[in-house]
Design brief:
The chain is mostly helical and 130 residues long. The chain has a domain of 64 residues. It has 4 helices and no strands.
Length: 130
């Protein structure tokens, strides 16, 4: 059965007219809402990217950094290092003192032996049994 052209177009309008497609016509009320949303999100995005004023702590830290950076550029960065503390040592216990003395005596003996030329003893061999 063949549909005539008039009934075919009415069937198309009836079926496809109810579907929302990108090709459907936008009403003026939808256009207003879309325009308002675009304006809102544009303004919202601009508000997010606006610079925020630094707090007092951030301003102080930035000034301190800029001062240190200027010194470093001039070559005065060694003055920025912390002050070295002189090391303090605990007194040795009697056991530690005795151990240090033993080690030093052994070390001196080895050093003396290493400094003197090494002469190997002469070994003699004999085939005569005994």
């Amino acid at each position: 059965m063949m549909l005539n052209s008039v009934s075919h177009h009415s069937l198309q309008n009836e079926v496809f007219g109810k579907l929302k497609t990108p090709f459907t016509r936008i009403s003026s009320s939808n256009l207003d809402v879309e325009l308002l949303l675009k304006v809102f999100f544009t303004l919202f995005g601009l508000a997010l990217t606006a610079p925020i004023e630094d707090t007092a702590e951030v301003k102080a830290a930035r000034a301190l950094f800029e001062e240190a950076f200027a010194k470093a550029e001039k070559g005065e960065h060694a003055s920025l290092s912390p002050v070295q503390i002189q090391p303090t040592y605990l007194a040795d216990t009697p056991e530690v003192s005795a151990s240090k003395a033993n080690f030093q005596a052994y070390f001196n003996a080895v050093e003396l032996a290493a400094a003197s030329p090494y002469i190997a003893p002469i070994q003699t061999y004999s085939n005569v049994g005994g």
